[in-house]
Write a structure and sequence with these properties.
This protein has one domain. It contains 6 helices and no strands. The longest helix is centred in the C-terminal third of the chain and has 37 residues. The two termini are 18 Å apart.
């Protein structure tokens, strides 16, 4: 049974790291699930404090990831069109123009979203920058969280 927990744990850790970058996959929650699977095996044991710390961190980062792009866009004068445009741009960039698309996609998507909303080029550009920064910060937070969880799992496994 330990082998199943460890194999599934590794699977969820890998999917969690991928999900930290791909917007439709919840990276940190999947990484945390991987950590719990490791904990349920007899090979790895985490302290209650560590499990609680990572649970809280995972929840906070997940919530921030949804709030920060909206905040960045709104702070720079944008609308929900910019947020949606940035998200769609990120997905298109990820699948059709990797790895550069991860950087350019959200920016172009937010700009197009604001233009569709009827904003001027100057305001759309400013909003696109805010949305882009929000998505980048959220992605970095998710990636760091998933990598921290993975690191602690691997250190305790080996």
């Amino acid at each position: 049974m330990d082998s199943i927990f460890i194999i599934l744990g590794i699977f969820f850790l890998i999917i969690g790291i991928i999900g930290a970058i791909v917007p439709v996959i919840p990276g940190p929650p999947l990484s945390y699930l991987g950590m719990l699977l490791f904990h349920f095996s007899s090979k790895v044991s985490f302290s209650t404090e560590m499990l609680i710390f990572y649970a809280v961190l995972m929840i906070v980062v997940t919530v921030i990831d949804y709030v920060i792009p909206v905040y960045g866009t709104k702070k720079m004068g944008g609308s929900n069109y910019g947020v949606w445009g940035a998200t769609i741009g990120l997905m298109i960039g990820l699948f059709f123009f990797p790895p550069l698309g991860l950087i350019i996609g959200p920016f172009v998507g937010a700009f197009i979203g604001e233009i569709i909303k009827g904003k001027s080029n100057k305001i759309a550009l400013k909003s696109a920058f805010g949305s882009f920064l929000g998505l980048v910060v959220g992605t970095i937070l998710k990636l760091v969280t998933s990598l921290m969880i993975t690191y602690h799992c691997m250190v305790n496994l080996f």
